[in-house]
Design goal:
The structure is a homodimer.
Chain A lengths: L3 H4 L20 H15 L2 H4 L5 E3 L5 E9 L5 E2 L2 E2 H14 L4 E12 L4 H18 L2 E10 L7 E11 L15 E4 L5 H11 L15 H10 L5 E3 L5 H13 L2 E5 L7 H10 L13 E4 L4 H9 L8 E7 L6 E4 L5 E3 L13
Parallel strand pairs in A: 5-6, 10-13
Antiparallel strand pairs in A: 2-7, 3-4, 5-7, 8-11, 8-12, 9-11, 10-12, 13-14
């Protein structure tokens, strides 16, 4: 999908070129910023009412509610920026429950002196991501802090959607024999941010995979509503997600090492920086756990979606070593993939 | 309501005394912080599942959804702190629609080096405010940024509740002749933060009014579901709220200056700092616009609630000067109460 009109949209003319403390004070300057920068891009009938809360139609069904704050550094990186990352991140957290994401809130913390040109570029990127995912930004808040009290801008997005009655996806639902399907290559987002931050360059640019996965999930739920577990492996990477699954379900997870796809340039960046791609954040990938008899059909449906075209079965659930994730290496050894202790990559999202 | 067990709750023992970057990485240290600091205080069956989203029962009815980010400086001030402010602020934004707030998300941005003792104190305060309001914190997120990239901590809260079918409160519903009821004294919160920041001391401490107003609103809706407009006058103060009402409804607002209550010490602080209390943030007050034939009964119901005991009718809606808020002073003059241009008080909430 293309939005040429958005990409060529000029920076609106405001009284100031940069964010002032007064833009966070709720007065005329706040309103100018909201009306020129935010409203034209996020416009919908709910947001337009400019109340302190959005009043939304309720179709019934359980509600999936999530929140995420974005502090990524740098705010622009190959393949994305803090804006589309913030939309896609919360869209993904919602849809991993099987819910169809509908409504988002956006909370900005802006540093005094931030150029409106920068803010506008990020808002355009948020608009595009929200349109692509088919979600509405229905309520928001902006705070401005004095220079040096935050790093350019931080964004919180929260949101919700509705879960069909027959969908019950949970980290504690893994069954022995289940297959583990990964929707594509690992570590693209984390390494895009890291190489961008470190100023490393490769023959081909390492690009973030940031994307909203809700349409892919909708296709998957057509195969079966009975996906056992599903998650987007962001901070902490696939290793952390699978460890949490193994612990919650009290089962073991056996990975087939040769099957885990990593792009060549991403693998190269990981080797230079001494980072294991299993622990690196992804922002447009999901891992799904499904019954073995449905696994091939699910894999086919995922491959039919652009965001799942590189999907692959990477392992299975076992009753050996409960609570442990193990990876059979190409040399035939079986090593434990432990939960990481702490930070590999600060401010990755 | 008292929570002595919470107030005497000792700081949990963690591997580190202060927040490390690793506490934001989603690994073992993140889990330690979540399990020792957040979960014991916010615990409920939904949050305990530790999924990336909360799955919530949906009773039907329209949904009121709101978000707010808190960057108040200092983080502790007389009468409250950034924690209860963050809970009460979003509770109030939700209930001003007439909705009963039910579920909140919390997103923290923590500065590397923040003492866990400080975080724990704030979390206790959030717990108490959430219990008092009767809302559940069902999902959350924590980011850690390197030292100097934020100022101690920032908190986003988002949340929602459900609006009864017969309630339609909106800034655009003001009718000529309506009465304007204020639930108590003005400017307490803003001046508590300002005097605390400036190190000013008065004979009696200026204390914030931070409070969740949802129980007061529930009492008001028993008088009539037909409250025309309602809002908590936070940033920009009562002047901003009423200007927004006048503009949305295309009516004039006439205030009776003598009736607007301000505590003596707050008035003194305003005079010293040269600040008009009409423009100062409140965090535990509401202004409601109701039909004249119901105004006295509504006032009585509000006065019966501890948070509305100082309620007073401060003005009325007029067809003169549409879009304009005017205040009749004690000297008999009628001055325009304009929308503020920008910042009087940065980082007040």
């Amino acid at each position: 999908m293309d939005f040429p009109e958005a990409l060529s949209c000029p920076v609106p003319i405001l009284t100031h070129d940069t964010v002032q403390l007064a833009h966070g004070a709720g007065g005329k300057l706040s309103n100018e910023m909201i009306e020129k920068i935010f409203l034209p891009r996020f416009l919908n009938a709910t947001l337009e009412k400019m109340e302190d809360q959005a009043i939304l139609h309720n179709p019934g069904g359980r509600i999936a509610f999530s929140t995420d704050t974005f502090v990524v550094d740098p705010i622009f990186f190959p393949g994305g920026d803090i804006g589309d990352l913030a939309i896609n991140g919360t869209v993904n957290d919602i849809c991993m429950s099987g819910a169809a994401p509908k409504y988002l809130s956006v909370g900005f913390i802006l540093e005094e002196g931030l150029p409106f040109e920068t803010l506008h570029r990020i808002v355009l990127s948020m608009e595009k991501a929200a349109r692509t995912a088919g979600v509405q930004i229905v309520t928001g808040d902006t705070k401005v802090v004095n220079r040096g009290s935050c790093d350019k801008l931080f964004i919180n997005t929260s949101g919700f959607g509705f879960v069909a009655d027959n969908v019950h996806i949970s980290a504690s639902n893994l069954q022995v024999g289940d297959k583990i399907i990964l929707s594509g290559t690992l570590a693209d987002h984390g390494m895009a941010v890291m190489t961008s931050r470190e100023g490393l360059s490769f023959q081909s640019v390492v690009s973030s995979d940031t994307a909203g996965l809700n349409h892919l999930v909708a296709e998957m739920l057509k195969v079966t509503p009975n996906i056992h577990a599903m998650r987007d492996p962001t901070r902490g990477g696939l290793a952390t997600t699978l460890n949490e699954f193994a612990e919650s379900s009290k089962v073991g997870i056996q990975l087939y090492g040769n099957n885990i796809p990593v792009k060549d340039n991403v693998r190269g960046a990981c080797e230079i920086l001494g980072i294991d791609p299993l622990y690196v954040a992804n922002e447009g990938k999901l891992v799904a756990i499904v019954a073995p008899d449905i696994a091939e059909e699910m894999l086919g449906a995922m491959k039919n979606n652009a965001l799942g075209k590189d999907s692959v079965i990477i392992g299975e659930v076992t009753d050996r070593h409960p609570g442990i994730v193990a990876l059979r290496t190409s040399l035939g050894a079986n090593r434990i993939v432990d939960m990481p202790v702490g930070e590999q990559l600060p401010r990755i999202c």
